[in-house]
Specification:
Number of helices: 19
Strand content: 5-15%
Oligomer: single chain
Helix content: 55-70%
Structural class: alpha+beta
Distance between the termini: 56 Å
Low-confidence stretches: none
Number of strands: 13
Largest sheet: 5 strands, antiparallel
Shape: globular
Length: 440
């Protein structure tokens, strides 16, 4: 039986105390590492990372909310965290310790004014899945079956303090000064607060799913305002398995391609036509049904793409632009990818880096079909990231670069490419730009 959590630290003092206590444990692990590393440095370092990742995840799992969400976000970005941390934090995407039933009932009464058993014919006492912001229960009413997402107590109120607590950790992980990082944390805080507003999620879920009904291969749950509130979100229950679990069943290449095409079409339609996109493309948000349809079940994190940023994004995907160094240089400046204090050598170094990244990542958009199972494409993708993370010259300025709108746009494309790579899917890609909505 899955262990349940009977309380969440809500006050700033109690949450900070949990972080401090974990820091002490992490420090103790480091002392043990120093004693072992002379005998076997690599094994000692691996053990240190494993123990510390476990200690930190246990703490964040208990805190939930913004602190855990940021750790999950970092784990999805290749190379940012050591492997042991990344694997641990990814495992928490839909596998955190759920809250006990009395706390769920308390949230229901406070938010909707009723016990869940007075709203539904049946309501599961055990959560079917639990993530950083809330957990999902199964309910029935008549012949209908629902998935009911219940938000954890105090999550919204602790976002700001959580960000302050993890700022130092994030600063070290991405090698950017805390002062520079503040500019980007404004965007992250905004998105996290939006994810705790289930009324906003309900509105966006209905809007986006209605806009995407023309995709034959994709199904979406129906959402129910009458059974929802700011802390409760009710939708149809969708039977299916997470996409990683489906891949482990060894589906045919034809089914991989079909699923990959649906995912590619879905994301590119939202980005280039709606300019409003699902911005949390980790595999846990996608289910495969028994009849091999793709179900998309979570619109908690949505990015609205401003026209100015969108116009630059379109240019990055046009072949005549990406081969023109002067036009690219103008775009980089417009996107704040340079700093006034950069030397000429630094400008050349960053220009070469940006050119390499843009030209490589735009390749899928310049062919009729693209094989995302191509090891060479993804290996070069990872090599670019590793080169950035390991190059001391790049981090010497200790400055953050780029428009903050890029944070979630980058996550959309990184997540999209990563899922298609896991699927080893070959998809039709050429028509995206011809159907793109003008931003001017």
């Amino acid at each position: 039986m899955m262990k349940e959590q009977k309380r969440i630290p809500i006050s700033r003092v109690s949450r900070a105390g949990k972080i401090v206590g974990t820091g002490i444990k992490v420090g103790g692990n480091y002392v043990k590492y120093l004693a072992k590393r002379s005998a076997d440095p690599k094994t000692a370092k691996d053990e240190l990372n494993e123990k510390n990742a476990t200690e930190i995840l246990n703490a964040l799992n208990e805190l939930k909310g913004g602190a855990l969400k940021i750790a999950q976000m970092l784990s999805m970005d290749y190379g940012i965290l050591p492997k042991e941390y990344s694997e641990k934090f990814q495992s928490a995407q839909h596998n955190t310790t759920p809250l006990s039933y009395p706390l769920v009932v308390k949230t229901f009464k406070k938010s909707i004014g009723k016990h869940p058993n007075l709203l539904f014919d049946s309501f599961s006492k055990k959560a079917f899945s639990a993530a950083s912001i809330g957990q999902v229960h199964k309910a029935t009413l008549g012949d209908q079956t629902f998935a009911v997402k219940v938000q954890y107590p105090g999550v919204a109120d602790s976002i700001n303090s959580d960000l302050k607590m993890v700022r130092q950790l994030v600063s070290r992980a991405v090698k950017v000064s805390r002062e520079e990082l503040n500019y980007y944390l404004i965007e992250i805080e905004k998105k996290l607060l939006e994810e705790t507003n289930y009324e906003l999620e309900l509105e966006r879920s209905i809007l986006l799913t209605e806009s995407c009904q023309h995709f034959d291969q994709i199904i979406f749950p129906t959402y129910y305002p009458e059974y929802s509130s700011s802390k409760i979100l009710t939708m149809d229950w969708v039977d299916g398995i997470h996409i990683k679990e489906w891949i482990s069943t060894n589906p045919s290449q034809e089914m991989r391609n079909q699923t990959g095409q649906a995912i590619w079409d879905f994301f590119n339609f939202q980005v280039f036509q709606l300019k409003v996109a699902h911005a949390d493309p980790h595999p846990g948000n996608f289910l495969i049904t028994k009849d091999n349809q793709l179900a998309i079940v979570d619109f908690g994190c949505v990015k609205e793409i401003p026209d100015e940023f969108y116009n630059h994004l379109i240019l990055f995907l046009e072949s005549e632009v990406i081969e023109n160094d002067q036009r690219l240089l103008i775009i980089y400046k417009d996107l704040d990818l340079f700093h006034p204090e950069d030397t000429e050598d630094q400008k050349r170094m960053y220009t070469d880096l940006y050119n390499t990244a843009v030209r490589h990542l735009s390749k899928p958009y310049h062919s009729d079909t693209f094989d995302f199972g191509d090891e060479g494409f993804m290996n070069q993708f990872y090599s670019i990231i590793e080169g950035v993370l390991l190059d001391k010259k790049i981090w010497k300025s200790n400055l953050a670069r780029g428009n903050r709108d890029g944070i979630y746009i980058n996550r959309i494309f990184f997540g999209l490419f990563s899922i298609l790579y896991e699927l080893k899917a070959k998809v039709q890609t050429r028509n995206v730009l011809s159907e793109a909505r003008p931003g001017y």
